[in-house]
Amino acid sequence: MSFRDLGKFDPVIWGKSYPEIGRPITANGLANSGVNSPLFHAVDAFIGMHQTSDEDELFRQQRIRRLAVLPALVRQFIEALAEPEHSVRSYVNNGRVSPCAAAAFDALVHSYIWLLEKHRIRAIGTVSIASASGRVTTAGGAQLETSSLYFSQRLNAQMMQSMASRLATRPRSMAATLVSRSPIGRRAIAVTLHFPCLLPIRAGDRVLVWPTADEDACTREECLFDGANGDPTPTTPTTPAILPVRPRHYSVSKVTQGNGRLAQQVTLSVADSEGMSVRFLRERPVGQSIRIRASPAPHFWPPAEPQTPLLLLGQGAGVGPFLGFLTERRASPTVGAIILILAARTIGDVPYLSDLEVLSQTLPLTVGLALSRDKCRILTQGAIAHQSRIMRAQDLLLHLQEDTQSLLRQGAHVYVCGSVDFGRSMRTALFTHWYLQEDRYHEECHGRATVSETRESFTLLDLAQHNQPSTIWIALGGVIYDLTPFRGTHPGGIKPLIEIAGMEADDRFRQVHSGDDAQGVIAQLSLYAIGTIEKRSMSSRLRSILRDIVDCQNVLTNNTWFASDRPVPFFVIAESLLVTSRSIARIQRGATTNNNSLTAPEDLQPIFQELKTECWTFLRDYMDISLDQKEKQVFAFYSSHWDEFHGLLQKLKHSLGSAKGDELGWLNMVFIEMIHQGFRGIRQSVERSVAALRQRLAKQRLLCLMRERSFYSNTCP
């Protein structure tokens, strides 16, 4: 499922329509969801989760729900898997299996943790947005009000602890043997690793390599932030000797298969540099072990149908996975057209040049070599044609415009692999000159980006003004990023970006992107840096109030902004006005030091309840138009009041810039009065909406009565 398209998945609609607790599977009912599904329970039992030293709270809640709601046969099956005498974990821990079998068990646990990590990232964004709309628990058991922490922090802490519990006594990496190391061009090396067991790896997947022979350095907690207690502050000293060693990701180029199409060894393409990981791979003696972990990259797998055309864009060693794609396609009888554009300095720097020449003789393959220090060349059917000028990769892409356009019209998938700067230039060229569906664009770019000097300084008020779907700024570590161009390609969709728009988002960023699989995220973000924050212009009290206002407005936007072509049932938006008014009331309570009840804002709950009741009555009883039309009209009523709340919140944001002198006095008088005036205006507006709905219903009832009387007068003698 794509999380980018709100027409397919919207976290607010999901939160309002999906059951809060998993239920037994029935013919007409929804299945269990999240980590509370029977599949997760079965895997936990198989790997011996119940034998870990400390059962964490989330797992305990899931076990209670399993006993309460799962069918008896499913429970019995899971309990049989968990019997201690049949536990795979205890069998492996006691040393009763071969090293190969132990490695296979570790690989299974690593794959399971990878799946749970993907689930964690999705769950944090989705459930946080859903909980802000009124959902109070997840299917896995995380509760909204069991802690003073934000719901997302509570959920993140529970899921991180659960993943650590599942690893328990097993290592976080495995030992692969360095088989060979050879140059591929002048600026890259090919490194071949032999696995201790067969692994389900294919070209395009990642292998995490730790640049150390010390197993303890790999098994230390790899996150610099304490995920177990939800505290985003560093918990490990910053002495380099005891910091955890972070792995480097490398994409798989070639796969040597063992039995059952599983990989026995792989070849990685490594750009030659002076980085720690590259030096380690370059200097490690052949035959020695290297700590690694496999990491699937399903977003970068080639299409299953070999007839699908491909447009491959690589930079230097980034051509590696494409070599694997082409090798796989050579085994198919019918293959779609392929264009590969490879950026390098000179012809001597092109990795796998001889392999590409051979592949071009057996595949419908055109290879464009974009050389920055020599004239570019085109390779087809094993022959190289010299071009008349030097061209960058994006220029060569336009030079082959007709062929590229033909491939895209045939539904080609586009793959980009290289540095972050290379990915940015390719993405810009593609989406500027051609129409390309997002689900056909695949990118795997890492490394440092070239960032221009950002001298402009912005205030927190400047940042706070950019929290709308049309303009999204966030701040991380004092740097402001304009993520507006990232809206359409963000893997989690636009709503997680809206949730943190206009504010300092360090805590949320650490929650989501603190793991090893987040390599390259900071480098990707650096492309969007536009300036720095000037904090001294606002006191800590006003900064806190401003953050609460922006957060309230972001929740309102997410709760009320949907895909234009997606129908929105009324129950999804029914509580949105009340949720917003309560948030503003909390902002006032936090801003004022006056506990006088006269300063409390007007309670809008009664009038919002009247509006909701009249809307339900209108949807049920009004018969002159279709249900779809009625829902649109109700949506229009609510939309006008959402705009009024947005106007009030914008006014409150702007007002903070005028707070001078007696700050507390200004908050107790001016700021509070603005909220009171806003609430009075909204109440009057909602009263008019209620009256309009009642008037329409009364007119329809009168017309129905008149029709009924006319019918009886015409039919009765």
From TrEMBL:
One record GO biological process: L-tryptophan catabolic process to kynurenine
Task: Return any one Pfam family short name.
Answer: NAD_binding_1
List the keywords (alphabetical).
FAD, Flavoprotein
Upper taxonomic lineage: Eukaryota, Fungi, Dikarya, Ascomycota, Pezizomycotina
Q: Which GO terms fall under molecular function for this chain's record?
A: heme binding; metal ion binding; oxidoreductase activity
Cofactor(s) for this UniProt protein: FAD
- Record-linked SUPFAM superfamilies: Cytochrome b5-like heme/steroid binding domain (SSF55856), Ferredoxin reductase-like, C-terminal NADP-linked domain (SSF52343), Indolic compounds 2,3-dioxygenase-like (SSF140959), Riboflavin synthase domain-like (SSF63380)
Database matches in InterPro entries: Cyt_B5-like_heme/steroid-bd (IPR001199), Cyt_B5-like_heme/steroid_sf (IPR036400), FAD-bd_FR_type (IPR017927), Flavoprot_Pyr_Nucl_cyt_Rdtase (IPR001709), FNR_nucleotide-bd (IPR039261), MRET (IPR050415), OxRdtase_FAD/NAD-bd (IPR001433), Riboflavin_synthase-like_b-brl (IPR017938)
Q: Which residues form the Cytochrome b5 heme-binding domain?
A: 455-534
Its recorded name reads Uncharacterized protein
Q: Which residues form the FAD-binding FR-type domain?
A: 171-303
